């Protein structure tokens, strides 16, 4: 969706939005450490969050 970039370009008078960059080694290492630390295989929180849910909201 390009609309936010277009709005920012108009408001700021710039031609485009900032481009994304590759993650640094420090960021990659920190993400790997967090992945190993947190129990991503434990789905209990997800099951508890939807327990007793009657319905979801319809998308507009």
Give a quick precis of the structure.
The chain has 60 residues and is mostly helical. Helices cover 50% and strands 0% of the residues. The relative contact order is 0.07.
Description:
- With 60 residues, this protein is mainly α.
- The chain is built from 3 helices and no strands.
- It has helices at 3-12, 25-37, 44-50.
- It is flat and about 45 Å long.
- The mean pLDDT is 78.
Write the layout of secondary structure elements.
Layout (H helix, E strand, L loop, with lengths): L2 H10 L12 H13 L6 H7 L10
Keywords summarizing the entry:
60 residues, mainly alpha, 0% strand
Terminal CA distance: 17 Å
Count of DSSP-assigned helices:
3
Query: In one word, what is the shape?
Result: flat
The number of E-state strands comes to 0
* Element-level helix/strand string: HHH
Radius of gyration: 20 Å
Can you give the mean pLDDT?
A: 78
Structural class: mainly alpha
| Low-confidence parts | none
Strand content: under 5%
Q: Give the helix proportion (percent range).
A: 40-55%
Q: How can the largest sheet be summarized?
A: none
């Amino acid at each position: 969706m390009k609309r936010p970039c277009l709005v920012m370009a108009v408001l700021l008078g710039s031609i485009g939005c900032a481009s994304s960059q590759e993650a640094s080694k420090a960021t990659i290492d920190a993400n790997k450490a967090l992945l190993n630390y947190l129990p991503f295989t434990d789905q209990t929180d997800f099951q508890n969050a939807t327990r007793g849910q009657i319905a979801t909201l319809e998308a507009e």
